[in-house]
Each structure stands twice: as structure tokens, then as C-alpha cells.
Specification:
The complex is a heterodimer of chains A (350) and B (486). Chain A is mostly helical and 350 residues long. Chain A folds into 2 domains: 154 residues, no CATH class; 161 residues, no CATH class. Chain A is built from 17 helices and no strands. Among the domains of chain B are: 94 residues, Rossmann fold; 61 residues, Dna Ligase, domain 1 (2-Layer Sandwich). Chain B is built from 15 helices and 23 strands. Classes of the chains: A mainly alpha (350), B alpha+beta (486). Chains A and B meet through helix 1, helix 5, helix 6 and helix 17 of A and helix 2, helix 9, strand 7 and strand 9 of B.
């Protein structure tokens, strides 16, 4: 029997976190959130187009074009595909590994990060990510189209939710947790700006269509893309109005996908990661996040519309990028890497 | 048996001329396998297949895999697993255990001698040229004091059984032996597949391995703090054994680090954490000597830590295993181990070697060259079943090629009498057939020496094959050491 004096030896270093591990936790979490958002966005928009027989090829192209624009991926898409129809855009966002941010690409990246830190996460978290990976790995996109893309998106969403739920219930509230949550909310905030921005890019409907069935359906789709339709209805108890949708997805302080909510979480976890305890943050990232949060706490939807919704959202995206980059640089410094192939080779020679 | 026609036990099972672990004839079962046979006898084929499928799926889901390098997709495969365990009665195991403890004790004394006084060379027990010219001899480590005087903390020794069932040592792995994670994972797979069998059988647990390993590592820590920090140094996620690295780190609750996570300042090793540099006391390294420190060994290594060797030499950090242990698991030195046991311990070896001929000795070389078709020829420093000739199973041209190589570079070769490895019933295409197996037990040398009861039983799945390595079509089995003898 070990004597009590020896007992502490058995938990040598529970509180230390390698920079590389923090980095992997952060990216694992971001990629899962990204895959989930993409699945929802594609699912909703594929359904939307099914609902409206009146859509012509041109309107369908405009519709998907707006999604490409808001994702910032239109150039890469144009390199590999001719037309932006439902099939091609879904292919590009869901299955195409030439797009590093496709669902498949995200799941691969999340899983590779999880594998590197397999020793740090719970068995449940790993198995969920690994199963999702195997699910995607075992299926060609033709098979998925044949069985129905809806089911596929559902499976990805559920796996992502399961993963996040398991993280909440099996991962210790340590520094690693802060990186996981920071990554998740940063990614979610970014995706919400893009979901809102989609509608900006859809060509304005003709005067007779404003408030008509198509317009309403599109705003509904925006809400559903953020899982927010029911929450919106409960909150306003009224019809879907464009500026109310904007208000809800930007300013709600209780809906977990609104910008306000996400940025508050980003600010909170950033504060803990960087050890910002003072009233005035010491780091540039800390100040940027505080400023953004103050805007989301104090502005009204009219201020946003005056400035222009698109411009407002672009500014937020840029700020989120800055915050993410800076946290990575502050906590995760590594000298420039030598060639990846050479490293892989040496790792395999062992 | 109630339904013999449906049972997976095969009435036409052939033990042939081999030592069969389970059967003495197609129907007679050795006493320590009796209860297993009863259980298997009640299983129908599809029931067995179902359990097999469930186990494979669980391995895949849990990521108990190794990476296949030849595949550009970086495909991960599961290590083929056979559901029929290998059973070792207690009395047999006690002898194995004593033999392994004796062997690692002698090898450790040998390494200490080689790197200090070299008495064994002065006494002309081993020709100095064999040591000083050995590939893994590190002259940089002469007269370096290692923590607690232990060189080999983790050892995997490969055992085989000959046609009469005698256990023989095939080789020692004193550098970075792998496979312990599969020993533990195989057990947990078997527990899921046959939960009730364990209770009644009295199988000794292998799950103590990680605790014992951690204890052995903590034993090395410099007396700096009461909470030494231990890490596992991995080549990285692309290494085929990465699963094992992360598994062991997880089981011990220690961080897994890559070379780039560590930095040496002032002969002390630190890891880069989000809170700055944190001191490291003990490194369980899974990187070969050559790659460990680019400032001392291979300068092109991108996996190592510059300055690590000096930090080790100055006693500020411990390494497991120590540097330069490969000189003692060289296949040429292997031939001397029985003499080393007598020399250092004044004891008779408990476990015998396979009869070995050294090409470096003129008379034995002559015998090898004249009888190469009847021998197994191995190059001194290859592992994984590579660089090897099995004379009786090779063509004339292959034998000729090896004959020329041996003549040109005798120091690099040994030859052994071929051993008809024992066989164990193994599920092959829907029925049980005998397949050759070996056994790799794991020995940990800390405050005391522990041998985990069991080990990794590897099985050559290809019919007639004697090569059990996973890179060449090998699989594995769970290994049950019993509390008693039945």
C-alpha cells in the first residue's frame, strides 16, 4: 500500500497545458462548430428551394451565389465548378476535400486535432468524433445524394451536438475547457454574421414581393439556418419582419447563437485565457473584444441599419479574426515549422 | 456437448507435428484450456462471428489502430485480433517470470559494465570489437551515471515455444518496445466479448501495467520536488505507434509531448505551456536514440530536442529507456546472454536461448555458410521481421544472396536453428485452425522488477507462416495468465 505521503505523486501535473494541446483543443472545437453550422445552412437552403416551385434556374443561381458570397469562398468555388446550382454548391460545401472548409474537410481536421490530443479528451468525446469521421469516410457523395442529403446533414448536426454535449458533461473545467469554449463561440459568432449576410446578397425582390411569400420564406430560412425560428417566435410572438430578425440574431442576450450572446462568451473565455482581470484589458485582443461586446450591448437595430447591415457584419467578422489570431499568437508560440513531409517521414521511421 | 455439429470447435482440427497450445489431439484439450473449450463448444458459428464483428467495430470506433505507411491516404487499420485467447497456467508463468527477471537483471548489469569499467571485455567474455563496433553502442555515454543505475526500464522480450513446448527467448527489445497498449486493449475487448468466462477462470489482470509503468518512471525523478513531472515523448501523430503513445499517456495521466514542445535551458528541460515554461523531470521517450537530440546524434532530426542529451548527462532529467541500451539487444550480443547471466549473477539461465551461430566466429561462420538452407539467418540490427532469411522456406537464389551477404559482413549476421513455433487454434475463414504464435511479455524495472502477467501474443495469420509481425500479416490474441493451474 502506498503511504499517504506518496499519494500526491500519482497526479503529477493536472494543471499544466501544453501550448500545442491548447491549440488543438481550440481548432477541434472550431471545426466541429463549423461543420455543424454548414450542415444547417445547406440543409435549410436545400429545403427552401424545394418549397418554391416558382424558382427559375436564375433565381436558384442567385440564391446559392449569395451563400457563396457570404462564405467568402466564391473564388475557390469558381476554380472548380462552372455553375452554382444546388448540386455543385452542396458538393463543394459538404464533400469536396479541395475545399478545406467543407464539412468533410472540417471533420477530418477536427478528428486529426482530436487524435493528436487523444490523451487529453474523454473517451466519449473521441469516440463521437471518430464515429463521425468513419461515417463520412465510408460514404461517397453519390451514395449520400441517393439516400437523401437531409438525413446526412442531420447526422452531422447530431454528432456535433452530441460532441458538444459530451464535452460539457465529460471534460474538466480546466484551461483546456476555456480554449474549447473560446473556439466554439468565436466560430459560432462568425457563422451567425454569415448567415445574416446571406440575405443581404440575395437580390432585392421586386416591390410586389416585399413581405410576400418568397421574402418571408427567405427570412424564415435565415432564422432556421441559425436554429432560431422557434426562439424568435416565442420572443416576439409576431410575424417575421426583416429588422426583427436582424435584431434577434444580433442583439438577443439569451439566444445562444446571437452575436451578442456569442461575443459575451468569447469575451469571458478570452478574459480567463489571457488572465485579464482589470477593468481595462491589457492586451489588444482583450480591448477589441470588450469594444465589440460594448457595441452589441448598447447599439440598436436602427444604428445597424443606418450604418448598413452588410458593413456592420463585415466589421464584426474582421474583429473576430483579429481576436482569434491574437489569442493564438499570445498563447501558442512556435518557431517556424520545417517541411511537413520531412517531419512525417522521420516520424514514420521510428 | 449439446450441439456439436453447430459448435465452432472443429472435430477435424489438426495439431500436426507442432506443439499445440490448446489441444493434444483433435479432441483432447489441455487442462488449463478445458473451461475455455467448454465455453467455445456452446457457441455457434454465427454467434462467434457476431462477437468477432462487434470487437472489430469497437476497435475501429475507439481508434485502436495503427497507420499503414504505404498508403498515401494515411489509412488506419485495426490490428487483427483473434478471439481465442492463449492461456498460461500459473506454474508455467512463474518460471517465465523468474527467467525474465533474471535476464533483465543481467542485461542491466551488462550495460552498466559496458558503459563503465568494461570488465566483461577485459575478462574476454565478449570480444571487444563486437561491443565497440556495435551500431547502437554510444561511446558518448561512457562513464555517464544514469539515474538509480537503471538502463532498461521497459523491456519487451519475445518468447517462443519449440516442438516440445519449451519456452525459448527469441530476442530482447531494450530500446522502445511497443505493443503494451494492445495487451491492455485486447483484454478489455475480451471482457466485452466473454464477460462471464473471466469470473470463473481466475485470469490475472493486466490493467496494472500503466500504474507500474508510472511508478517505474517516478522512481527515476531527480529529488527536486515531491511532485515530479513526467512526460511521454512521441515522434508525432504520423508515427504508426501513435495510438499506443496516447493510450499510455492517458492511462498514466501524463502529457504527451513532441520534440517541439520541449526546450532545454541551462541543461534543464522545460515544456512550453500556455502559462510559460514548466520543468520536466522524467521523459518516457518513444523516439530512437538517433533522433533524440540533433546536437549530438542525427543533426537532421526534426523530432528531437537540442540539448536534451547534455541535460540527461548532467542529471537534471531522466530518460526511460536510457541512451545506448541497443548495444545489449543486438542479435549478436543476444548469443552471449546465457554466458552473461552466469558471469554477472552466477546462476544458470532459467529461460534458454534459441541455438545461435555467430557469423563473426570463423568456425560458426563456416557452419552457417555450408548449411544456410537449413537455418534462419538474421541481420543484427533489423526488426519487424525484415532483413531475415528462413532457409527451409526460401529459394536457392535467396539463400545464395544471403550467403554472399554473410560472407561480406559477418559481424552483421547470426543464424539460428529453425524452430517450429507452437500453434494456437485461431479463427480462419469460418473455422479454427492452428496458427503459429509467439509471446511478448513486458518487464518494468523500477524500484523492483515487475512482469505484467500476460503480454502480447502475436499470431501469424497466414497459413504456415512463422512471421508474427503486424507489418507482415500478423495479428494478436489476448494472453491469460491463470491464478491457478487449470
Amino acid at each position: 500500500m502506498p503511504t499517504p505521503a506518496n499519494a500526491p505523486l500519482l497526479r503529477p501535473q493536472a494543471t499544466v497545458m501544453l501550448s500545442r494541446v491548447a491549440h488543438s483543443l481550440y481548432w477541434m472545437s472550431r471545426y466541429i462548430e463549423r461543420a455543424e453550422n454548414l450542415s444547417r445552412l445547406l440543409d435549410v437552403n436545400l429545403q427552401l428551394l424545394l418549397d418554391f416551385q416558382g424558382f427559375t434556374d436564375t433565381t436558384i443561381k442567385e440564391h446559392w451565389g449569395s451563400i457563396l458570397l457570404s462564405s467568402g469562398d466564391e473564388e475557390l468555388f469558381a476554380k472548380h465548378y462552372d455553375i452554382a446550382d444546388s448540386h455543385n454548391v452542396t458538393e463543394y460545401f459538404a464533400f469536396d476535400l479541395r475545399n478545406p472548409n467543407s464539412i468533410r474537410g472540417c471533420v477530418n481536421a477536427a478528428r486529426e486535432n482530436a487524435r493528436m490530443i487523444r490523451d487529453q479528451i474523454s473517451a466519449e468525446m473521441w469516440e463521437t468524433i471518430n464515429e463521425l469521421y468513419l461515417y463520412l469516410h465510408d460514404r461517397s457523395s453519390e451514395e449520400i445524394w441517393a439516400t437523401g442529403a437531409g438525413e446526412f446533414f442531420n447526422n452531422v448536426k447530431r454528432a456535433a451536438h452530441l460532441f458538444q454535449g459530451l464535452t460539457t458533461s465529460t471534460y474538466s473545467r480546466s484551461e483546456g475547457w476555456e480554449f474549447i469554449e473560446f473556439g466554439k463561440y468565436l466560430e459560432r459568432a462568425d457563422k451567425t454574421t454569415r448567415i445574416l449576410d446571406v440575405k443581404y446578397h440575395i437580390l432585392l425582390p421586386s416591390a410586389t414581393d416585399v413581405g410576400g411569400a418568397v421574402d418571408t420564406a427567405q427570412w424564415q430560412a435565415v432564422l432556421r439556418s441559425a436554429s432560431a425560428l422557434e426562439a424568435y417566435r416565442r420572443f416576439y410572438v409576431r410575424e417575421i419582419l426583416p429588422w426583427k430578425v436582424g435584431e434577434f440574431l444580433i442583439f438577443s442576450d439569451s439566444f445562444p447563437r446571437s452575436l451578442h450572446f456569442c461575443v459575451a462568451q468569447v469575451d469571458e473565455f478570452l478574459r480567463r485565457i489571457l488572465g485579464e482581470t482589470g477593468a481595462r484589458p491589457r492586451t489588444a485582443a482583450g480591448r477589441a473584444s470588450r469594444r465589440l461586446l460594448a457595441d452589441l450591448q448598447s447599439l440598436a437595430i436602427t444604428d445597424v441599419l443606418d450604418q448598413g447591415l452588410h458593413e456592420f457584419l463585415m466589421d464584426i467578422q474582421a474583429t473576430l479574426d483579429t481576436i482569434g489570431d491574437e489569442v493564438v499568437q499570445t498563447t501558442m508560440f512556435y518557431p517556424a515549422e520545417s517541411s511537413i513531409e520531412e517531419q512525417q517521414q522521420q516520424q514514420q521511421q521510428q | 456437448m449439446s450441439k456439436p455439429s453447430l459448435s465452432i470447435l472443429n472435430p477435424s482440427y489438426e495439431t500436426a507435428d507442432y506443439f499445440d497450445e490448446m489441444f493434444t489431439s483433435s479432441t483432447d484439450v489441455r487442462p488449463h484450456y478445458r473451461r475455455l473449450a467448454e465455453r467455445l463448444g456452446t457457441l455457434a458459428r454465427d454467434e462467434f462471428e457476431q462477437r468477432r464483428g462487434a470487437v472489430d467495430l469497437a476497435f475501429l470506433r475507439r481508434g485502436v489502430t495503427f497507420t499503414v505507411y504505404s498508403d498515401s491516404q494515411g489509412t488506419e487499420r485495426i490490428f487483427p485480433f483473434d478471439l481465442v485467447p492463449r492461456v498460461i497456467p500459473n506454474a508455467e508463468w512463474s518460471r517465465i517470470e523468474a527467467g525474465l527477471v533474471q535476464r533483465i537483471t543481467a542485461l542491466n548489469l551488462f550495460l552498466d559494465d559496458v558503459y563503465h569499467g568494461q570488465k566483461v571485455l577485459k575478462d574476454k567474455l565478449v570480444p571487444p570489437a563486437l561491443i565497440l563496433g556495435a551500431k547502437h553502442f554510444r561511446r558518448e555515454f561512457m562513464n555517464c551515471k544514469v539515474p538509480r543505475g537503471i538502463y532498461v526500464h521497459i523491456c519487451g522480450t519475445d518468447l517462443i515455444r519449440d516442438a516440445r513446448g519449451n519456452y525459448l527467448v527469441l530476442e530482447d527489445n531494450l530500446r522502445c518496445p511497443s505493443g503494451a497498449s494492445y495487451m491492455v486493449e485486447n483484454r478489455s475487448a475480451m471482457r466485452r466479448a466473454f464477460p462471464n468466462l473471466f469470473q470463473s477462470y481466475g485470469v490475472r489482470p493486466v490493467e496494472t501495467y500503466a500504474d507500474d509503468l508510472l511508478k517505474a518512471l517516478l522512481h527515476l525523478a531527480p529529488a527536486r520536488s515531491d511532485k515530479p513531472s513526467v512526460v511521454l515523448l512521441t515522434p508525432g501523430v504520423f508515427n504508426s505507434a501513435y495510438f499506443e503513445h496516447s493510450f499510455l499517456a492517458r492511462q498514466m495521466g501524463i502529457p504527451i509531448v513532441e520534440g517541439r514542445d520541449l526546450v532545454v535551458r541551462d541543461d534543464r528541460v522545460f515544456m512550453r505551456t500556455t502559462a510559460g515554461l514548466v520543468r520536466v523531470d522524467v521523459i518516457y521517450r518513444r523516439i530512437d536514440d538517433d533522433f533524440l537530440d540533433p546536437s549530438v546524434f542525427r543533426p537532421d532530426s526534426m523530432l528531437g530536442v537540442p540539448g536534451l542529451v547534455n541535460a540527461y548527462r548532467s542529471g537534471h532529467v531522466a530518460l526511460a529507456n536510457s541512451i545506448g541500451t541497443g548495444v545489449a539487444d543486438d542479435k549478436v550480443i543476444y548469443a552471449y546472454v546465457p554466458q552473461l547471466i552466469k558471469y554477472y549473477l552466477d546462476q544458470e539461465p532459467i529461460l534458454a536461448n534459441v541455438n545461435t551461430y555467430l557469423a563473426s566466429e570463423p568456425l560458426q561462420r563456416k557452419y552457417i555458410l555450408e548449411n544456410i538452407e537449413k537455418l534462419v539467418v538474421k541481420s543484427a540490427n533489423e526488426a519487424g521481421g525484415y532483413g531475415m532469411l528462413i532457409g527451409p522456406a526460401s529459394t536457392k537464389a535467396e539463400c545464395e544472396a544471403f550467403r554472399a551477404q554473410v560472407a561480406a559482413n559477418p559481424r552483421n549476421f547470426i543464424a539460428q536453428d529453425p524452430i517450429n513455433l507452437s500453434r494456437s487454434p485461431t479463427w480462419c475463414d469460418g473455422h479454427l485452425e492452428g496458427r503459429h504464435i509467439d509471446l511478448r511479455p513486458y518487464i518494468l524495472y523500477g524500484e523492483k522488477i515487475t512482469v505484467t502477467p500476460g503480454g502480447l501474443t502475436r499470431v501469424a495469420l497466414r497459413k504456415g507462416s512463422l512471421v508474427v509481425n503486424s507489418s507482415q500479416g500478423g495479428g494478436s490474441k489476448d494472453t491469460w495468465v491463470l491464478q491457478g493451474d487449470e
